[in-house]
Amino acid sequence: MMTRAQLHQQNLNKIFYPDSVAIVGANKVAGTVPCDILMNILKADFNGIVFPVSPKEKFIAGVKAYKYVVDIQDEVDLAILVFPSSVCHMALEQCGQKGIKSAIIISAGFKEVGNDGVVLENQLKEIAARYDMSFIGPNCLGVINTDPRSKINASFARRMPDEGSIAFLSQSGALCTAVLDYAYAKHIGFSKFISFGNKADISEIDLLYYLKDDPKTKVILMYLEEVTDGLALMEAAEKIITENRKPILILKAGRTSAGASAAASHTGSLAGSDEICDAAFKQAGIIRCENIEEMFNKAIAFAYQPIPKNNRVAIITNAGGPGVLTTDAVVRQGLQLAKLSDETTAVLKKNLPKTANTNNPVDVIGDARADRYNIAMSAAFKDDNVDGVFVILTPQSMTDIDLIAREVAKVSSHYDKPVFTSFMGEADVAVGIDVLQRNKIPHYILPESMAIAFSTVYNFSQISDHRAFNPIDIEETARDKANRILDSAISAGQKYLTENEATQILKFYELPVIENALAQSADEAVSLAVRFGFPIVMKVMSKDIIHKFDVGGVVLNIQSEQEARNAYMKIVDNVRRKLPSAKIDGVLVRKMIPTGEEVILGAKRDPSFGSVVMFGLGGIFVEVFKDVAFRIPPIGESVAKSMVESIKGYPLLSGARGNNPRDIAGIVQCIRRLSQLVTDCSQIRELDINPLIVLDEGKGVFIADAKIML
After folding, report:
1. What are the counts of helices (DSSP H) followed by strands (DSSP E) for the chain?
2. For the residues of 576-614, what is the DSSP string, one character each?
3. pLDDT of amino acid 347
């Protein structure tokens, strides 16, 4: 039996490539949504049959109308519902009876308006499931497919966009109209344009899988207001990116978090929903954008130009200042300024004025016309040391802007290397920019934007399939024991595990805890101290105490039997004075860990992405600088290593300024084991290992303290 996800993939084809469409709720009142959708379909030269369904009209725009959808005698592939929300379920029921399997529900007034709308939306979902139907919406703008095989504008957008290779998905219908207008002004075309609204049935995940194999789509753009199933989004993105090499660019709303509740751990306080989104997107290879302009700056670079083979760029300009600015931007983005070959330099010296700069950036001088740009571009494209060309123009009185733009398009068409342009200014260069955009040459208002776009495309080309994951080998009995401790603590009403319980669980997962034992008398504490060997540490154990230092419940660097005896009595006395109501279970005794670099490991449960693991340097770095990295389990070797290397303080671990490198391999293994632990044990809400002491390379890592919140 087909799953809903499989059914959606089958039915989506009839949404984008229907042979027949019924507009259910059509009317002839110009300027209304039902009428505009019908007219948009007719004006777009849809390659199929249109059936208006209207209880009141016999003909609309010269097309025969039907009172009910079940009155249509022919087969119908797609229904577009524009009735009021109160009767939408009745219309969808009739579509099901008619045998229609695909629908777009434009109507608003569902989940977005509150509880009554939720009830109506649930009715739609129930009907769709009963008839094996799939629908996009409700509360959406509609769907556009520019492919000449279909040419359907099933939306109430103002115009049909040009054909292109960029697909755009949006949760917001209003944003769709703004994007269409923005793209129209810049001659940017689309393969598919989809407003999915409340995603009551077909979700963005279903749409991503459809676009994965869509031959008309090279680049996928998405606007999201919420991430409902983060793990499914990551899985879909990883498949699209690594298997089909299609970039996914996401504009995600909600970067700020107003009124967030106080978190109970370092991890909880640092891992806000936006930080987790950022980490998850990067981990999956998704490119996150700040605004529409940035999204399309990068999208056209992917859609219009070849992928660069390396990151060496040549800059051609008619003004020195912009050339220097672009050089700075190239370096900032981690790109290289190409070293031009002797042959290229010779060609430039021979054919450009003596005052021209024939090194990179190549300055063809302010009075340059199209011929000089031709010489410089051709030489740069032919040079094996050049992987991409940046063309900059500032408008002088003698600059033939239109001809230079045409020359850029003509010359670049002969080479399999990308060209990016920046015709600087606005009014004077507008005609040249229009030529570039019509010829699918990426144009950027600022040279810095060129460098960012080129860097994004190049870095995307370097993404490898890192999804290979070998689970940590944990004994089934250890997993069961850990879950029993957690379940027992929850049954007892505990909010936190005691340190002794937390240590046991970490030990089951072979995380590096130091041997320890619980003493319930001073004599027992002395005996354990002698057994473990000095120096030692003692800590109070109590389900009623979370922050042991605050109540004088910790003594460090105990060097003798007498100090051990005194420490035990001091801890018990401190706790009884400062927190007399606390039940003391005993005092934990363990060997003191040698001095090393302090780092923090943590984990928390996120509603969208499930388990999230955190790593960072300890002390001031986590408290003040918040220099941390997040990843979503399961975490393999390469992802764990990249997590460690991504923090700003990594040089302190790798041996900066003559210091010994620390045991990074030990940290990587801890991250992997912690990832496995929180994947296996869903009872854990937050977990902190703070600090994890990291010794020199090959000498190990050790957990100094751990806290587990249930």
Report:
1. 24, 29
2. HHH-TTPPP-EEEEEEPPPP-EEEEEEEEEETTTEEEEE
3. 97
pLDDT tier for residue 233 given thresholds of 50, 70 and 90 = very high
Q: Indicate which CATH number applies to the domain containing 424.
A: 3.40.50.261
Specify the range with the lowest mean pLDDT, choosing from 80-84, 307-311, 636-640, 656-660: 656-660
d(CA 433, CA 421) in angstroms, rounded, equals: 9
CATH number at residue 559: 3.30.1490.20
Same domain, 624 and 652: yes
Rg (CA), the chain: 32
| pLDDT tens digits, 17-55 | 999 999 999 999 999 999 999 999 999 999 999 999 999
My answer on whether 649 and 706 are in the same domain is yes
Residue 285's pLDDT is: 94
- How many alpha carbons fall within 13 Å on the CB side of residue 708? 25
Domain boundary (552, 586, 620) is at 586
Estimate the share of the chain in helix, then strand, then coil, as percent rounded to the nearest 5.
40, 20, 40
Ramachandran category for residue 440: left, alpha or beta (phi over 0 → left; psi -120 to 50 → alpha)? left
Domain of 658 in residue numbering reads as 473-513+593-710
- 316 is written with which tokens? 């051609």
Residue type, 355: T
Residue 23 domain-assigned? Answer: yes
Neighbours of 440 (CB within 10 A): 18
- 359 exposed, middle or buried (CB, 10 Å; 0-12, 13-18, 19+)? exposed
Q: Are residues 581 and 442 in the same domain?
A: no
495 in the same domain as 549: no
CA distances from 136 to 22, 106, 128 (A): 15, 8, 11
Of 566, 586, 606, the residue that ends a domain is 586
Q: Which residues contact 81 (CB under 8 A, 6 or more apart)?
A: 24, 25, 88, 91, 92, 95, 103, 104, 105, 106, 107, 137, 138
Residues 408 and 556 in one domain: no
| pLDDT at position 268 over 60 | no
Domains in the chain: how many in total?
4
Question: If we measure between CA atoms, which residue out of 654, 641, 648, 589 comes closest to residue 622?
Answer: 648
Task: Report which of 122, 131, 84 is spatially closest to residue 103, judged by C-alpha positions.
Answer: 131
> Does one domain contain both 406 and 336?
yes
Q: By percentage, how much of the chain surpasses pLDDT 70?
A: 96
CA distances from 591 to 15, 523, 620, 688 (A): 67, 17, 25, 20
Q: Based on the domain organization, do 492 and 419 belong to the same domain?
A: no
